[in-house]
Write a structure and sequence with these properties.
This protein has about 850 residues and is mainly β. The protein contains three helices and 51 strands. It has an 18-stranded antiparallel beta sheet that branches. A hairpin with a 6-residue loop joins β45 and β46. The radius of gyration is 28 Å and the shape is globular.
Length: about 850
């Protein structure tokens, strides 16, 4: 028996992700009750639409109407309000009445204060009890924070409490014999696991719902009905680990009257059972103007930035946002209208708009890539044709031309201002890969093989928050600063651009061309975590790329219309270390580059050739999407493989890429008729492999596809579709989206264009409908957690109520060291 198997047999994780509530905090917090609340409460958590109270034998959920909360938020901006909170100690419906008492008008309205009607926030509470739970259950708070809360509210000093400790998890030990309940947070989502240890019986678990308007099972999910909407306890799709294999189990809810039990079939005693992907939220922006999806990225707390373009003044901007008006544009791309960038930030659960803003001048703008720093400041790169694009300082437009230029803007965390903004370029188009989407002639051309490839570039951050750019330029006079890598344009229609900027965009640290005599573009950038060297990936038609190409995978151009490439650059931009071609005799496009913790680069893209399969247990023979792990010096493949259907052309246009800390590899992309209709070859998503843990198992051939490859190309962990069935094809119009470090996808989608079908959204989100109705598109924001076993594997020890976590990846080998035998005996007397 292996070390992993020995550890696994100690407990049976029978169920996870039962109750889901969204938190507006980076980590949901459990605050101890020292007397400031009702004595039945042990811990309290604040969630975005209410509160969650842990009690000795269960919990109470207090929910407020999301619509009422939104109205309250809008009223609070610029108004003084009086708040009256009726007391309510039981379950059922209550309300919060808010009357406007301001003596001045709001900035958004000329209506006198007396004309405002009082607001009512409707609320509903329900209680869940573990029937027959033990009176001797041991409640263990875990992961304490260094901070604490004080409560000095009202004039009743008996309810004043200080130094109330805050925890990130709580375990109820032996709530039933040999059964524990573990409450915790993941990606801003409140969850709990029921853990059945040897001797425990799943039939002992009975949960009674009091105060709900009803409970029922829909689509294998438990739906709790309340007067302020529905809540869901997610579909219990589970599998168990048996050695190195994962065996799917049939686990479901059984509901009778107001009680819930769990039914699970054919599980092996002593094995761990794991919950799989969770659709955290899917929402529209709700824009009343045509709004196309481009790019997305997470914030450190799990909130969601979505970036797109918008064609009018009905985008849902927030009070106080940086740019609240649409600045228009010109029809220089044969679209028919001008457009600005649209940015919207959603809460971790997608139910709130944290801010929304335009970004643009009198020309046209579009976003290509976004990333958020640890302080919550958002960095956006894209392109602009506006002579008055907002820059900070004003001299940051020194290099602007009359065509399209590259833009980088850094927003403050609250979206009310910009920290810095630059517009940089030469006399021709910059940030435009070959030509715009609708500029004739249309269709695939050289290194533009998919619809949206005209808008490929990336920004990343280094450890000092310097901003690194991978893009392209058609200008022979692009400003080259502090670098001798390539100081002049090398020919073809365009060269790649590599640049590095100060964190506040006040200066260019270095900038350089990268390209040969053909057409070149830099699509992706990543940092080697061990050396800090910059690795750039992209595509080229040049046979003479710059850099040392000796002792690498591809020292010469492989053939076909295009090849992929990777080049390694010193952090200060002073020199290229190595360059390699990557490709086949077909058309090869490299769209992504990422690193694992050991400093190995991984690449992802598409091909029309026979991509090599090397050292890989998994591959889909004859398919055209590739993933490869390279030696850090680019000398060889560690492994290389392909996925998709057997075909002559690719299935999808890839738009997001990740290598997680356990070396699993993630890809997101879309394909189908929309690509084909505009002259870009795509087989579409029909026939792509679907795994049993898929969020969506069927496709109309025109959807998004999420793929996860196990470490070392051992197996496919996930294959799932996402999108509407019928109607206008799901797609993006350019740019890239991102996974976070835990494998959660933050995906922007141009969705539900002109209606005609139902796009999948989740309950209670910011906007459940396309704001244009049948008149246009809406950007959708989709957040999905993959939840793979072993990504957070570890040993948990608790001493005096404090948790010590040791985290690893499956298979996990644990070495125990004796620290007692070397200890000295110390005698202490206390008086």
């Amino acid at each position: 028996m292996t070390t992993l198997q020995k550890i696994s047999t100690y407990f049976l994780l029978i169920f996870a992700t039962l109750f889901v509530a969204k938190s507006s905090y980076a980590q949901l917090q459990f605050i101890e009750n020292k007397g400031q609340w009702n004595k039945a409460v042990v811990f309290k958590s604040d969630i975005s639409t209410g509160s969650f109270f842990l009690e000795k034998k269960g919990f109470t959920v207090l929910l407020h109407s999301p619509t009422d909360l939104l109205n309250f938020e809008e009223t609070m901006h610029g108004n003084n309000v009086a708040v009256n909170v009726p007391s309510n100690s039981g379950t059922g419906t209550t309300s919060l009445v808010i009357g406007n008492t301001s003596s001045s008008t709001t900035p958004q309205s000329s209506t006198p204060p007396s004309a405002f009607k009082p607001l009512t926030i409707h609320s509903h509470a329900y209680k869940v009890n573990f029937v027959g739970a033990s009176d001797s259950v041991k409640i263990i708070p875990e992961k304490p924070l260094s901070s604490y809360n004080n409560y000095f509210i009202g004039n009743d000093t008996t309810q004043w409490q200080s130094n109330c400790k805050i925890y990130q998890a709580v375990t109820y030990k032996n709530i039933y014999p040999n059964i524990d309940v573990h409450y915790y947070t993941n990606a801003g989502t409140l969850k709990y696991d029921i853990i059945i240890r040897p001797g425990g019986n799943v039939n002992d678990i009975v949960m009674k719902y009091d105060g709900a308007d009803g409970i029922q099972v829909k689509n294998k999910e438990l739906v709790v009905n309340t007067s302020v909407g529905e809540t869901k306890e997610l579909y219990p799709y589970t599998y168990q680990l048996q050695g190195d294999e994962r065996v799917t189990l049939d686990c479901k809810y059984e509901v009778k009257d107001s009680t819930v039990r769990f039914k699970i079939k054919d599980h092996a005693e002593g094995s761990t059972i794991v919950i799989d992907p969770t659709l955290i939220f899917s929402t529209f922006t709700g824009s009343g103007s045509d709004n196309w999806g481009y790019t997305a990225t997470p914030a450190p707390d799990g909130s969601f930035f979505a970036g797109g373009i918008v064609f009018g003044n009905a985008f849902p901007v927030s009070p106080g946002a940086f740019q609240q008006t649409f600045n228009g544009g010109v029809d220089d791309d044969r679209i028919g209208l001008g457009y600005d960038i649209s940015i919207i930030k959603f809460s971790t659960g997608g139910n709130l708009r944290l801010y929304g803003t335009y970004l643009g001048g009198s020309g046209n703008e579009q976003p290509h890539s976004m990333i958020c720093d640890a302080q919550g400041d958002l960095v956006i790169t894209g392109r602009s044709s506006s002579p008055n694009f907002p820059t900070k300082p004003a001299t940051n437009s020194t290099y602007a031309s009359s065509g399209y230029d590259i833009t980088i803007t850094k927003f403050t965390a609250d979206g009310t201002g910009i920290i810095g903004s630059i517009k940089i370029g030469g006399s021709n188009d910059d940030g435009v890969n070959i030509r715009g989407k609708y500029v004739a002639p249309g269709g695939a051309d050289a290194i533009r093989r998919n619809y949206g490839d005209d808008a490929r570039s990336e920004v990343i951050l280094d450890g000092n928050n310097n901003i690194i750019l991978a893009s392209c330029s058609q200008s022979t006079n692009f400003p080259i600063i502090n670098s001798t890598i390539q100081t002049s344009f090398n020919g073809g229609r365009q060269d790649g651009i590599i640049a590095k900027f100060a964190p506040d965009l006040s200066s260019v640290i270095f900038s350089t061309y990268f390209g040969g005599s053909g057409d070149d573009a830099c699509f992706s950038a990543s940092l080697n975590p061990l050396t800090g060297n910059i690795y750039i990936g992209g595509s080229t038609t040049s046979t003479n790329l710059p850099g040392d190409t000796t002792n690498v995978i591809g020292s010469k151009y492989f053939g076909g219309v295009t090849d992929g490439y990777v080049t390694e650059v010193k952090p200060d931009g002073s020199a290229i270390i190595k360059t390699t071609y990557l490709g086949t005799g077909g058309n090869d496009m490299l769209y992504g580059i990422q690193f694992d913790q050991e400093g190995f680069p991984y690449v992802m893209g598409s091909t029309t050739g026979d991509w090599p399969v090397i050292n890989a247990n998994f591959s889909d023979t004859g398919s055209k999407q590739f993933i490869a792990k390279l030696q850090p010096d680019l000398s060889a493949y560690v492994y290389s493989t392909v996925f998709g259907t057997k075909s002559a052309i690719p299935n999808i246009s890839p738009v997001a890429f990740l290598v997680d800390r356990c070396e699993n590899v993630y890809v997101s992309g879309w394909g189908g008729s929309f690509d084909n209709g505009d002259g870009y070859p795509s087989v579409g998503t029909a026939g792509m492999t679907v795994t049993s843990n898929a969020i969506q198992k069927t496709t109309d051939g025109n959807d998004f596809y999420f793929f996860v490859l196990e470490k070392n190309a051992n197996s496919q962990l996930l294959g799932s579709f996402f999108g509407q069935q019928g109607g206008f094809a799901d797609h993006v119009d350019g740019g890239t989206s991102r996974f976070d470090a835990n494998g959660i996808i933050y995906q922007a989608i141009c969705a539900n264009c002109y209606g005609g079908a139902t796009f999948p959204v989740t309950p209670g989100v910011w906007a459940s409908k396309n704001g244009t109705g049948t008149q246009g598109c809406n950007e959708a924001a989709v957040k999905i957690a993959m939840n793979f076993a072993g990504l957070g594997a570890g040993i948990r020890t608790v001493a005096n109520g404090l948790l010590d976590d040791s985290v690893g990846c499956l298979p996990l080998t644990v070495q125990f060291a004796d620290t007692v035998s070397t200890a000295k005996k110390i005698h202490m007397e206390l008086w």
